[in-house]
Amino acid sequence: SRAEEDFTRARKRDVDRVFRNPDPQLHPFEKQREYKRALNAVKLDKVFAKPFLFALEGHMDSVWSMETLQTSLRMLVSGACGGELRGWD
């Protein structure tokens, strides 16, 4: 049985106690959570399953933007946070 003193705060500034059951089988949304986790895992598997083509190394700072030129789809320009622009063929 529950005793009132277990849930009554001793002082006004005390934090209310919250009792949680750690058993995942008793949580009402456990099936939905597991479905969402499985869905996210599949999405990540698809993202990381793509073949790695090449690495663009050379920027000293992190890359902020990447664009292709309108005149040539083979030319790629990347811009770093430090203001550096690099062209990649």
Task: Describe what you observe in this structure.
- By secondary structure, the protein is an alpha+beta fold.
- Helices cover 26% and strands 17% of the residues.
- It is built from two helices and three strands; from the N terminus they run ααβββ.
- It has helices at 4-7, 30-48, and strands at 63-68, 76-80, 85-88.
- The protein has a three-stranded antiparallel sheet with strand order 1-2-3, with no helix packed on it.
- β1 (63-68) and β2 form a beta hairpin.
- The protein is elongated and about 75 Å long.
- Average pLDDT works out at 83
Amount of beta strand:
15-25%
* Terminal residue distance: 73 Å
Tally of alpha and pi helices: 2
Which runs of at least 5 residues are low in confidence (pLDDT < 50)?
Answer: none
Instruction: Give the ordered list of helices and strands.
Output: HHEEE
Helix content: 25-40%
Tell me the Rg in angstroms.
27 Å
Q: Tell the overall outline.
A: elongated
Arrangement of strands in the largest sheet: 1-2-3
Mind summarizing the main beta sheet? Answer: 3 strands, antiparallel
Secondary structure: number of strands: 3
SS-derived structural category = alpha+beta
